[in-house]
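Hi team,

As requested, here is the filled-out complex form for the glycine run. I kept the field names the same as last time so the parser does not choke. Let me know if anything looks off before we queue the next batch.

— J.
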Amino acid sequence: MKILVLGSGAREHAIVKALIRTGTDPSNITCAPGNGGISQEVTTVDLNINDPAVVTAWALAEQTDLVVIGPEAPLVAGVSDAVRAAGIPVFGPSKAAAALEGSKSFAKDVMAAADVPTGMARKCTSIYEVEQALEAFGAPYVVKADGLAAGKGVIVTSDKKAALDHANSFLTQGMEILVEEFLDGEEVSLFFLSDGSSVLPLSPAQDFKRAYDNDQGPNTGGMGAYSPLPWLPEGFIEEVQNRVALPTVRELARQGTPFIGLLYCGLIVTSKGIRVIEFNARFGDPETQVVLRRLLTSLSGLLHKAATSQLANQLEPEFSKDVAVTVVLASEGYPVTSATDREIAGLEEDDRHVEIAHAATKLVDGKLFATGGRVLSVVSMAKTFHKARKHAYKVIENIKLEGSHYRTDIALKVDEGADD
Ligand code: AMP
Ligand code: GLY
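And here is what came back:
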């Protein structure tokens, strides 16, 4: 099966590695545009992945059997619509279905129609309405921009002025604002493969969203993750499947916009039960690095079946009993700014436990340079969280990138809570 993977982050590197690990021949994988790490494993091609015509033409010319879309931008640009219309199976929802991620108010409407549990929210179009909503819900305040904001659209703060300033910065760009009730509890990312009518769960993960240790600092795209979550109650996955994923997929099908791709359920386990805080229409980053690291079932088979309406007869994917931890190395200044074009040295994967998924790197004359905010994802797998953490941190400590930073407490709580 010839596969084209679109994207250039650690998520896409993790997808490529998982395809290879679960049986796909690397010579059958192309990644566009890829990065300095991906290009060391498979062919990369410099396409404008947000141009539906360019991607479709390439996929047709190369007789591609499956297109896998990593990031949200090509989804929003309608790439999957165009590729699908050309008769090529594509793992990634249509532009209309991807609005589940891009438009928080659309997601809230779908959840209301499908009776999916989520927090209360108010849509606001003026700073006056925002102020009223903040008053109504009380602190801590949760303010969300209703549009794609590259992981920077949400603020959770007890500082009312900061909440208002955040809302104002998006209102002045013409975006609407959602003010939400604050939900207290552990966060879970649970991914489902969807073929438009059937869904299959992957293994749950937890992401660390804040920039610094002890959940301090600004929200980021994600600074680390681990999987599985041994503290989840029995029956959790079935409950999310039956109360969240299936009703959502059925509602989208009913509206004539079937969701074919990865339904990312961002959840909080509150004292009153499971609540959805967000949907994404794609694999999460960095959760994918730990979830797919543990996958045993053929990834190409799963994605192809999802893309061709064949999930109903597919057994649930299998995962290793080993655990996985990933720690993200970020550039100086991330998430506010990011220092780029600095050389990276000291990368050493140890074949047994640790592999490195590149997030923002380029290779120039055999040397590796950072090209963005999140630079590398060090991914470690072992029998226990204690060992996985130890191996991951040993590798990341030796990586040299001027000004870079990483969190030192990824999966620390679960490690301390475990009896190993
Ligand atoms: P989102 O982009 O919607 O996932 O929000 C980013 C982060 O903000 C989430 O991962 C949570 O940590 C936090 N967050 C979002 N919505 C809420 C909420 N209603 N209550 C508490 N925390 C939230
Ligand atoms: N890790 C959060 C996301 O991918 O949106």
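Two things worth flagging: Residues 186-313 form a domain with the D-amino Acid Aminotransferase; Chain A, domain 1 fold (CATH 3.30.470.20). The first strand starts at residue 3 and ends at 7.

Thanks,
J.
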